[in-house]
């Protein structure tokens, strides 16, 4: 089944699956079988970014129940919006929020520098570089590993990927 491309899967490390009809459908969603054995009625499998699958229950809310909640909320009058939410944070707050979420560009974050140094050391020692390899070696998420590989490419540690997706380590081997 080629419904979900690899690119989409790579960018959604957390997945859920309700009951499916076949092992193939389960493998498409989760990467392994199991969802075809679920009981239905909210029984689901939850896969966190690390790949560990947990069985849990997702509540079922009928259309009628949703309409009741909406009507109840409408009875309180028109909505009042918080304007600051629509405007977004100012630049200083945005940078601090990015730093907390680990989305900063890497300038000034000591933890990111240490992680980058570890990634470079691994690449130079093992003489191979790929996002998934860095991800496995450092036990980090795909996006962070991809950023580290891109940073290594920008700084001339590794080449850009060739037609097969391989990268050449440009730094000479340590003597």
Element-level helix/strand string: HEHEEHHHHHH
- Please tell me the overall pLDDT: 82
Main sheet record: 3 strands, antiparallel
Q: Report the portion of residues in β strands.
A: 5-15%
In order across it, which strands form the biggest sheet? 1-2-3
**So how many helices?**
8
Find the structural class using helix and strand composition: mainly alpha
DSSP strand count: 3
Distance between the termini: 49 Å
Approximate shape: flat
Helix content: 40-55%
Question: How would you explain this protein's 3D organization?
Answer:
- 46% of the residues lie in helices and 7% in strands.
- By secondary structure, the chain is mainly α.
- It has a three-stranded antiparallel β-sheet with strand order 1-2-3, covered by helices on one side.
- A hairpin with a 5-residue loop joins strand 2 (43-47) and strand 3 (53-57).
- The protein starts with 5 loop residues before the first helix and ends in a 21-residue tail after the last helix.
Write the layout of secondary structure elements.
Elements (H helix, E strand, L loop, with lengths): L5 H6 L3 E3 L5 H8 L12 E5 L5 E5 L5 H12 L8 H5 L3 H11 L8 H17 L4 H8 L3 H13 L21
Antiparallel strand pairs: 1-2, 2-3
Brief account:
With 175 residues, the chain is mainly alpha-helical. 46% of the residues lie in helices and 7% in strands.
């Amino acid at each position: 089944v080629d419904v979900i491309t690899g690119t989409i899967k790579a960018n959604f490390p957390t997945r859920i699956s309700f009951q499916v009809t076949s092992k193939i459908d389960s493998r498409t969603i989760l990467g392994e079988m199991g969802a075809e054995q679920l009981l239905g009625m909210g029984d689901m499998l939850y896969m966190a970014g690390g790949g560990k699958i947990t069985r849990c229950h997702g509540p079922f809310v009928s259309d009628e129940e949703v309409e009741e909640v909406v009507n109840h909320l409408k009875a309180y009058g028109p909505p009042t919006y918080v304007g600051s939410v629509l405007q977004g944070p100012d630049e200083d707050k945005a940078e601090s929020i990015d730093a907390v979420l680990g989305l900063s560009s890497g300038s000034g974050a000591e933890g990111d520098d240490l992680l980058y140094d570890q990634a470079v050391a691994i690449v130079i020692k093992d003489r191979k570089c790929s996002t998934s390899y860095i991800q496995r070696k450092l036990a980090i998420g795909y996006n962070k590993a991809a950023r580290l590989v891109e940073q290594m490419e920008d700084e001339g540690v590794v080449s850009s990927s060739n037609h097969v997706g391989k990268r050449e380590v440009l730094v000479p081997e340590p003597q």
